[in-house]
Amino acid sequence: MRKIFADSFYWIALINPKDQWRPNALNVSRSLVDVAIVTTDEILTETLNYFAESGKFLRQTAVKNVQAILLDQNVEIISCSH
After folding, report:
1. How far apart are the first and last CA of the chain?
2. Mean pLDDT of 12-40
3. Are strands 75-78 and 35-40 parallel, antiparallel or unpaired?
4. How far apart are CA 20 and CA 5, in angstroms?
5. Nearest 5 degrees, angle CA 44-CA 75-CA 34?
6. Per-residue DSSP letters for 11-66?
7. Cα–Cα nearest to 47, from 20, 8, 13, 18
8. β-strands 2-5, 35-40 pairing
9. pLDDT tens, 48-78?
10. How many CB atoms lie within 10 A of CB 55?
11. Averaged pLDDT score across all residues of the chain
12. What is the band of 7 on the pLDDT scale with cuts at 50, 70, 90?
């Protein structure tokens, strides 16, 4: 199975309906057949931080999306160490 790396740019665009890159991110997301996504726990934290002051609805949406990412069998989350 092919793997691709997803950074916060991708996750934010998928979550935020007003993001200018959302259409591109949605197109990429739809094309990911038999592809595993690799990301890091820091990227997920950065994604949540981005929405911290975006209002209750977007914060809750971001939390739900990150929870879904954590449970997704097609997403590998790498814990980073320094």
Report:
1. 28
2. 95
3. parallel
4. 20
5. 145
6. HHHHH-TT-TTHHHHHHHHHH-SSEEEEEEHHHHHHHHHHTTTS-HHHHHHHHHHH
7. 8
8. parallel
9. 999 999 999 999 999 999 999 999 999 999 9
10. 9
11. 94
12. very high
Amino acid letter for position 64: K
Length of the chain: 82
Q: What is the largest CA-CA distance in the chain?
A: 38
Q: SS3 for 3?
A: strand
Structure tokens, 10: 């991708």
Cβ–Cβ under 8 Å, residues 3 and 37: yes
Read off the tokens for 79.
């814990």
Q: What angle do CA 24, 28, 32 make, to 5 degrees?
A: 170
Q: Is 34 left (phi over 0), alpha (psi -120 to 50) or beta?
A: left
